[in-house]
Amino acid sequence: SRNDWHHLFVTQLTILCAKIIKYKTFVSETFTVSVKSPVSVQRGHTAILPCWLTFSESAEDMEVLWYQGSDQFGTPVLLYKARTLDYSSQKASYAGRASFGLKEETSGGLKAGDVSLKLENVTIEDAGKYICVVSSFDDSDSASISLTVTAETGHQPLLSAVMRDDNKVNLSCQSDGWHPKPELSWSDSKTALIPGNVMFSKNSAGFYSVHSWVLVSSPSEVSCSVGLFNEEPKETRMRLENSLEEGLWFHPQVS
């Protein structure tokens, strides 16, 4: 009958709509966070840490959290929720420097699922692992990125000499402005010298200084080399010669 046909049509239409709604719900609930790692940037420059959702799904109505290393689920680098950036709990060292960036120039930003982190005026302390966490009402996913911060190599080693009462020369070597921690070595024209001590210090900007000394008891050309692992070191040499006055040692030239 006509009523039976109408009832069957309504029933089938209801089932079809339910399937469509279920499919749409499934698609919106499931997403994957992707990143491009590692990222390397020079100190003082701007870094983009690429992070995005698969299938270019919009992230405008999602919650986005960026954390650095051990701060996960603690103090965020960047927090986005309720369609706005929330700076109330942001880590102080990132204030005014962290925002959303674009993983590429043609990116559509949040509307296209691009939740990349932009860090301006990058410091040495910014180096490390970052975690990108994206959450919707029904789902959540995260991925990590490694950020490496490079800096200019340190300064040329500075040598100084002090004559001791026992007619030995105490040679001192110092160099600063290094990152990461450098290696220091002594040598003369024949062999490596064992230093009396090697001390490191780190300033507020994250750069290392190194200081060492060695005792020399005969005329020679002594060198102090400071450098990073697997890189060409910076070397300063000092020539020690006999003095015609009172048999003391002196150092007429530094090269």
Automatic annotation (TrEMBL):
Q: Where in the cell is it found?
A: Membrane
Q: Which residues form the Ig-like domain?
A: 29-150, 157-241
User: Does the keyword Coiled coil feature in the UniProt annotation?
Assistant: no
Q: Which GO terms describe its molecular function?
A: signaling receptor binding
Origin superkingdom: Eukaryota
Output the InterPro entries linked to this UniProt entry: BTN3A2-like_Ig-C, Ig-like_dom, Ig-like_dom_sf, Ig-like_fold, Ig_sub, Ig_V-set, IgSF_BTN/MOG
Stored Gene3D superfamilies = Immunoglobulins (2.60.40.10)
Pfam families in UniProt: C2-set_3, V-set
Keyword terms of this UniProt record: Disulfide bond, Glycoprotein, Immunoglobulin domain, Membrane, Signal
- Has UniProt tagged this entry with the keyword Endoplasmic reticulum? no
Its BP terms in the Gene Ontology are: regulation of cytokine production; regulation of leukocyte cell-cell adhesion; regulation of T cell activation; T cell receptor signaling pathway
Any one GO CC term of this protein is: external side of plasma membrane
PANTHER family (alphabetical):
BG-LIKE ANTIGEN 1-RELATED (PTHR24100:SF149), BUTYROPHILIN (PTHR24100)
User: What is the name attached to this protein's record?
Assistant: Ig-like domain-containing protein
